[in-house]
Amino acid sequence: MVKVIVDGIPVDVPNGSSVLQACEKAGKEIPRFCYHEKLSVAGNCRMCMVEVVGSRKPLVSSCTQPVMNGIEIRTDSEMVRAARRSTIELLLINHPLDCPICDQGGECDLQDQTLGYGRDCSRFRDKKRAVTDKYLGPLVRTVMTRCIQCTRCVRFMNEIAGTAELGGIYRGTNLEITPYLEQAIYSELSGNLIDVCPVGALTAKPTAFRFRSWELKNTDSIDVVDALGTNITLQVRGSEVLRILPRRNDDVNEFWLSDKGRFSLDGLKRRRLDRPWIRQNGKLVESNWDDALQFVVDKLKSSKKERIGAIAGNLCDVESMFALKNLINKLGSDNLDCRQDSAYYDTSYRGHYVFNSTLNGIDEADALLIIGSFPRQESPVLNARIRKRWLSLTEQFPIAFIGEFLDNLTYKVDNLGDDPTLIHDLLQNKLLFNETLNNAKKPMIILGHGALIRNDAKIIFEKTLALAQKIGAISDDWNGFNILHHAASRVGGLDIEFYPKNKSLDTISMLEKGNIDLLWLLDADEIDLTQLSADCFVIYQGHHGDRSAERADIILPGATYTEKSGTYVNTEGRIQRSFRAVFPPGDAKEDWQIISLIAQSMNIELPYTNIYELRGCLAKTYPVFKSMGVDKNKMCSSIKNSEKNIKKQPLRSIISDYFLTNSISRASLTMQECSKARHANLTTKAAE
Amino acid sequence: MSENKMNIQPTDFTFDKESEKQIALVLAKYPKARKASAVIPLLYIVQDQMKRLTKSAWIPKIAMSVIAKRLEIAPIRVFEIATFYTMFNLEPIGQYHLQVCGTTPCWLRGSDDIVAACKKATGIKEYGETSKDGLFTLSEVECLGACANAPILQVDRDYYEDMDGQKTIELIEALKRGEKLTPGSAINRKSSEPVSQKQSLPENLRTK
Ligand code: SF4
Ligand code: FES
Ligand code: FES
Predict the structure, then answer these.
(1) Which end of chain A is more exposed for a tag (fewer CB within 10 A), N or C?
(2) Rounded CA gap, A611 and A596, in Å?
(3) C-beta of B57 in contact with ligand 3 (< 6 A)
(4) B10-84 belongs to which CATH class?
(5) How far apart are the CA of A41 and the centre of ligand 2, in A?
(6) d(C-alpha A555, C-alpha A559), whole Å
(7) Alpha-carbon distance values, A114 to A32, A59, A122, A143, A153 (Å)
(8) Torsion, Cα of A189, A194, A195, A197 (10° steps)
(9) What pLDDT digit, counting tens, does each position of B147-184 carry?
(10) Does any ligand 3 atom lie closer than 6 A to the CB of residue B106?
(11) Taking CB atoms and an 8 Å cutoff, what residues of chain A touch B74?
(12) How close, in Å, is residue B85 to chain A by CA atoms?
């Protein structure tokens, strides 16, 4: 620890901190453009100047200056103010000052800091430079004349996204930020460029000129496009979500959000189911709640209880799954499944189906083995965390990969191939990578759904767990055994046991011909309904007229994640809650309410009448839900290593098109455009 | 690189034998993990190869991708460096690159005359132009670090020192005939010793 004095306030900061950090600790605001907490320090904007008292060169850029014991810093002396005024004046020389037509207006660092620290008028009378705009794809709009060359975007692409496509070309006054090729940026994290850019050079293309930042109201929420549980803020004007921004949470997503999570938002308004529909004479016709409820009740009453089934999709909140489970159970059936992909999980211990290391744990790990997962597509933000670990040069971070290698993972891996029987070799200490694993103090294994949805998933799972035990990945203070989920609802579904027990039917058997008479789909769109018998009655409860709604006999319009308060459990097993930002459109209702209405109409008593009681009941039944956050999870200490062998059939990725994995993103024009641009990208790449 | 000239960009580039030889020598100088450091020498190698094969020393964009692949870095990093240094030509130039130093010492010693002579002998009107016969491109450069022998005219990699208008015209006419004059001082002085009387280390002191 080092003691420094900031404006007379003594603070202790760790050795190697920057002066800027010390000033922040003392509660002083230091203006900045190029410095970003999660990026490398560039020190090129000179806005963060402070005065070091008694130094030969008293004005220093605080972001680059390391602290020294006992130094005294002034953040508000006349010298500092003059320096800031000059910096702003210089930056404004080539800035177009087009704030009235700039989307960043109102949340622009340059605007704010000019107001706070700049001169009150301009002395510049000469010509300004202009820079041609660049094409960065369907998500990021550029007005490069506004760029102040802080290079945050370049550093973000280089360091976090890991696809170094942006750079600064030419020099001096001619310096321009540009991509190497005039093509859509090939990244799943490109939307974050808009956040890191302190000015209006990089703004959101899909929502250009749609709103001003001060018109928006914020609601805390949780992203559902993947299972990371990215903390987000929904920004709303009137009844429309106009923007989705990441909300900082250093334990989960840090500052970042995936492009799908950020820009699927136009999908929230398209193809929506806003009233009940009932199939009559083969055609779906508009209806109302009274008729629809009556219809469902009649059908439920007339169906045999063991021939009723329910499948929950990937976007569901825990509350609605819990309500549905209660209802179906009360009807006398246990044909429930939250696994649309029929993945195998060992649910005997919670630690067997979550990401035990936690995201923070990635920062500590010293070796990684990825099996049957392609994290860049399944969870781009988690992938960035792995890259961050890999980049931190303090220690080596060797990574091996078994699975379908789609493209650049943004870190170097030892690609062992897509043959899952390599796990046998690892167990027998036959591979070179064994040595790495054995030497590692905190080895990590990520097992993905490319492996878990196979027929031999149980064997793969048990062998992988055995491997984890063998290499010492599971000990008292470290758990390196991880399942990487892709469905936001999955861990929650498993936690509330939304899966069949004993002889009850699972997804596959429910979808087989003639096994059930009534199938209730809660937001389940990623299943194949073609095998279902024609006379099976399908209730589709969901928000989008997507794949499953076409087959439905009745449609009960539900709410998207922005329209209800819900609990979600991320891949780590972290329990998080979102809040409602807007009301569901038209006649649509929150999902647990629909279920509770049906229960009432059938005179079935569910032990709750509002969401709070429901949550109370949930926590009583499943104590993990007692508190938010993540806990250490139990693991079995003596799992038996399966006798059987893994099949030699290659592992396949579970995602065919990153941008179109759920009903919301499939309805989004932006995501469709991204998917097209990605295809074009890949074709030119293949042609090279 | 201006957009309208993009169509002159070739669609592929491969190093020839000669370049490969030079690359091997360059790469040997750096540790394997640090081979990205070889980017500037490799850019020169490309430029030289282009000169050898097409008589025009420049770096096509596709060659930057080739360098990037060889050094295992992102192509944008090569692009950044190639655009940063004015020594790299990003568009085709004439067979001879006339680079006149216009910085103060050379200017005081008459660089304006050299520029005028270059323009007269080649027909070029402005800096950056290439002569109609495709032989010459004229550029203004900053201090070449040879001020003691000012003014300097650099032709490709060679320095012609102590120049004046007349000598410039002679030099250019010789180049047109395909002859190459010996680089160095045009007034036959030895390296950068004083033109007249030596002021330091006179012979009598040296012998002592
Ligand atoms: S585009 Fe934005 S982030 Fe990038 S250098 Fe310019 S101002 Fe900085
Ligand atoms: S923030 Fe310190 S120089 Fe830019
Ligand atoms: S000024 Fe011309 S070489 Fe230095």
Answers:
(1) C
(2) 11
(3) no
(4) mainly alpha
(5) 8
(6) 13
(7) 11, 20, 11, 20, 21
(8) 120
(9) 999 999 999 999 999 999 999 999 999 999 999 899 99
(10) yes
(11) 158, 164-165, 167, 180
(12) 8
Q: Which residues of chain B does A166 touch, with a Cβ-Cβ cutoff of 8 Å? A: 76
Q: pLDDT value at position A688?
A: 61
In CATH terms, the fold of domain A2-91 is: Ubiquitin-like (UB roll) (3.10.20)
| Closest CB from A165, A170, A179 relative to B83 | A170
The verdict on a CB contact (< 8 Å) between B76 and A179 is yes
Tokens 């997804």 correspond to what residue?
A: A507
Strands A283-286 and A277-280: antiparallel
Cβ distance of B74 and A180 shorter than 8 Å? yes
With a 6 Å cutoff on the Cβ, whether A243 touches ligand 2 is no
How far is the C-alpha of A46 from the C-alpha of A641, rounded, in Å? Answer: 60
Q: What separation in Å is there between the alpha carbon of A43 and the centre of ligand 2? A: 4
Are A258 and A265 spatial neighbours (Cβ–Cβ below 8 Å)?
Answer: no
Q: Among the CATH numbers 3.40.50.300, 3.40.1190.20, 2.40.110.10, 3.40.228.10, which is that of A356-484?
A: 3.40.228.10
> What is the ipTM metric for this complex?
0.88
Q: Domain map of chain B by residue range?
A: 10-84, 96-185
Question: What residues does each domain of chain A span?
Answer: 2-91, 277-343+490-630, 356-484
pLDDT value at residue A687 = 66
**Bridge partner list, A417:** A402
Fold classification of B96-185 (topology level): Glutaredoxin (3.40.30)
Positions in chain A whose pLDDT score sits under 70: 393-395, 687-688
> Is the CATH number of domain A277-343+490-630 3.40.640.10?
no
Quote the radius of gyration of chain B (alpha carbons, Å).
20
The string of pLDDT tens digits covering residues A630-661 is 888 888 777 777 788 999 999 999 999 999 99
CA-nearest of B129, B124, B208, B204 to B168 is: B124
Cβ A227 vs Cβ A485: under 8 Å = yes
Say whether pLDDT at B69 is over 90: yes
From the list A165, A170, A171, the residue facing B76 with the nearest CB is A165
What's the rounded Cα separation, in Å, for the pair A532 and A529? 6
Q: Using CA atoms, how far apart are residues A420 and A142, in angstroms rounded to an integer?
A: 44
Distance A569 CA to ligand 3 centre (A): 68
Q: Where are the extended beta strands (E) located within A27-175?
A: 49-52, 59-61, 72-74, 140-142, 166-169
pLDDT score of B3 more than 60: no
Could you write out the DSSP letters of every residue in A106-122? TS-HHHHHHHHHS-SS-
User: CA A338 to CA A676: how far, in whole Å?
Assistant: 31
Residue B204: what pLDDT?
A: 66
The reported pLDDT for the residue numbered B4 is 44
- pTM for the model stands at 0.93
Note whether A168 contacts B: Cβ–Cβ < 8 A: yes
Cα A60 to Cα B104: distance, rounded to the nearest angstrom:
33
pLDDT digits (tens, 9 = 90+) for B92-135: 999 999 999 999 999 999 999 999 999 999 999 999 999 999 99
